[in-house]
């Protein structure tokens, strides 16, 4: 018969050895989806066997020495030793025995000698019950996993609330360090490319199930079809360091092992990239965005299974140009972000000349172009995760790579920078998150001025009361407290890096009352500004 569950383990209990031997030979147990896994001569011996392993079916005689069948099963039920189905055997029919057997929860009551057909019917009935239970349990687990995946997807996309987070945290234990790994079947694999859309999705589901099997107890960390891109056959994996540690591997060795196993078992080329480590599941959206951007930018090569390059900045330093040029690119990015058209034009011209410098090594230029592409695409993706990534990447890539072609010129690049700045502004108009980020950039620049929530609300055409609520939700504190933290942070930097007096620092960062400044400084750093400076000077000398 067809089985969807493992062979059921049968325990035979009878004080007559020939009865056990006869039952074992009476039917083809394996053909009925069972195996004789144990034999005992009385209830005491049977209980010892039940303590050693689990059984699915118990076939026991009622009348036995030391402990009869009724006492044995009663003991099993009371002590919750087994959930096995029970078949009672008896040498004669006795109504009281049968009644007691039914009260004990037996599935069947058979008179010796046992009929082959009767035993087969009882075994098949029990087997069907187990199959139904297994199917019901599997459906239940599938529903629970599907719902868990929905909650995880919300968190990964950064579109979650406290309810999503609570549901996940109650069911999964995440350490401080989490990384998002993007895995997909390569459409450049010819044998996969020629498949129909339905067959491709079928292989994507296989990828999901194989990855879940390989991760074993961490199978809940695998989520199917995260990007929802019709041309991407992907899964997502929430990586925690314990996964690699359990196999005695480094993180990169673990990823190489996983991709090799997926490729060998699935039969198609697998490509993958991982975002940087973040502090806890609530921040995993940042790692996801980075991994997906690397994928879109082709920031990895075929077979390159390394973790995020941001985790390897020391290694990447040799590919960077002079620090001042990277800072100038950051200035352009900032100008585009805040939509300062005058600065955008000036910064874009400067960057264009640097990227089109024929005297610079092509490798250096390419790394700078990748950096600029990644940062600009990231600005749009941070505003709205639902944007068409491929379209944005193509738009940015064409404009920047065009610098190195005969079609490129300074005016085109400058116009692109201005247009992209306008594009980001339109994105912000459709999301409070974008407005908050723009406010954050302005506070970083104008923290010493008399900046207020009312001023920002008027500037960005948002009700100041509502803006205050959005701000508190984003940062967990009021606008006033946030501004104070920025000012105090800037003040601490000045105290460490300059010889300015404390009252001069207070004035420089926007405080008119020196006593109020000192109190706020102590709230953050738990020492006065003067003591803060002395302590850090002492630490510097000690090292």
Rg result: 34 Å
Structural class: alpha/beta
The CATH top-level class label of the largest domain? Alpha Beta
CATH superfamily of the largest domain: Reverse transcriptase/Diguanylate cyclase domain
The total strand number stands at 10
Number of domains: 4
Approximate shape = elongated
Which strands sit side by side, in order, in the main sheet? 2-1-3-4-5
Overall pLDDT, averaged?
81
**CATH second-level architecture of the largest domain:** 2-Layer Sandwich
Relative helix content: 55-70%
Please tally the helical runs, counting DSSP H or I stretches of 4 or more residues. 24
In CATH, the topology of the largest domain is named Alpha-Beta Plaits
Strand content: 5-15%
Can you walk me through this structure?
The chain is an alpha/beta fold and 543 residues long. It contains 24 helices and ten strands. It has four domains: 8-133, 3-Layer(aba) Sandwich (Rossmann fold); 172-315, Reverse transcriptase/Diguanylate cyclase domain (Alpha-Beta Plaits); 321-430; 435-542, Arc Repressor Mutant, subunit A (Orthogonal Bundle). The chain has helices at residues 17-26, 43-52, 69-78, 95-103, 116-156, 162-171, 190-193, 197-215, 241-246, 251-266, 284-296, 313-316, 323-338, 341-355, 362-383, 389-401, 410-429, 432-446, 453-459, 464-475, 479-497, 502-508, 514-525, 529-542, and strands at residues 8-13, 34-40, 57-61, 85-90, 108-111, 177-185, 222-224, 234-239, 270-274, 278-279.
């Amino acid at each position: 018969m067809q089985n969807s569950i493992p062979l059921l383990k049968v325990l035979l209990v009878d004080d007559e050895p020939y009865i056990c031997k006869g039952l074992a030979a009476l039917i083809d147990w394996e053909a009925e989806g069972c195996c004789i896994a144990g034999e005992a001569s009385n209830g005491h011996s049977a209980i010892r066997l039940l303590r050693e392993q689990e059984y699915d079916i118990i076939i026991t005689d009622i009348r036995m020495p030391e402990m009869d069948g009724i006492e044995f099963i009663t003991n099993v039920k009371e002590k919750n030793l087994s959930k096995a189905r029970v078949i009672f055997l008896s040498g004669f029919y006795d109504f009281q025995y049968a009644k007691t057997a039914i009260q004990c929860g037996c599935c069947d009551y058979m008179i010796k000698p046992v009929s082959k057909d009767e035993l087969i019917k009882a075994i098949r009935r029990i087997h069907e019950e187990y199959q139904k239970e297994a199917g019901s349990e599997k459906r239940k687990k599938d529903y629970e996993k599907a719902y868990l995946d929905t909650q995880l997807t919300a968190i990964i996309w950064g579109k979650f609330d406290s309810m999503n987070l609570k549901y996940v945290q109650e069911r999964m234990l995440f350490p401080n360090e989490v990384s998002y790994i993007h895995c997909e079947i390569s459409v450049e694999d010819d044998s996969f490319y020629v498949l129909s859309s339905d067959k491709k999705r079928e292989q994507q589901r296989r990828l999901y199930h194989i990855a879940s099997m390989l991760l074993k107890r961490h199978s809940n960390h695998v989520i199917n079809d995260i990007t929802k891109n019709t041309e991407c056959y992907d899964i997502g994996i929430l990586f925690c360091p314990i996964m690699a540690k359990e196999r005695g591997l480094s993180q990169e060795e673990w990823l190489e092992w996983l991709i090799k196993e997926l490729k060998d078992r699935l039969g198609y080329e697998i490509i993958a990239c991982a975002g940087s480590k973040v502090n806890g599941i609530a921040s995993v959206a940042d790692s996801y965005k980075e991994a997906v951007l690397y994928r879109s930018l082709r920031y990895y090569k075929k077979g390159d299974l390394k973790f995020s390059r941001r985790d390897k900045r020391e290694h990447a330093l040799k590919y960077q140009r002079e620090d001042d040029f990277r800072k100038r690119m950051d200035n352009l990015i900032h100008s585009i972000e805040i939509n300062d058209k005058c600065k955008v034009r000036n910064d874009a011209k400067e960057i264009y000349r640097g990227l089109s410098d024929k005297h610079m090594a092509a490798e250096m230029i390419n790394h700078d172009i990748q950096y600029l592409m990644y940062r600009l695409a990231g600005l749009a993706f941070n505003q709205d995760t639902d944007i068409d990534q491929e379209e944005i990447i193509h738009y940015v890539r064409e404009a920047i790579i065009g610098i190195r072609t005969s079609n490129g010129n300074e005016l085109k690049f400058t116009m692109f920078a201005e247009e992209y700045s306008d594009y980001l502004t339109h994105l912000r108009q459709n999301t409070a998150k974008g407005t908050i980020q723009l406010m954050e950039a302005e506070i970083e620049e104008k923290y010493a001025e008399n900046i207020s929530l009312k001023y920002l609300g008027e500037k960005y055409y948002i009700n100041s009361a509502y803006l205050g609520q959005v701000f508190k939700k984003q940062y967990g504190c009021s606008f006033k407290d946030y501004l104070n933290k920025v000012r105090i942070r800037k003040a601490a930097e000045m105290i460490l890096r300059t010889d300015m007096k404390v009252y001069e620092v207070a004035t420089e960062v926007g405080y008119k009352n020196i006593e109020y400044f000192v109190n706020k400084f102590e709230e953050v750093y738990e020492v006065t500004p003067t003591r803060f400076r002395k302590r850090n000077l002492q630490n510097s000398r000690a090292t």
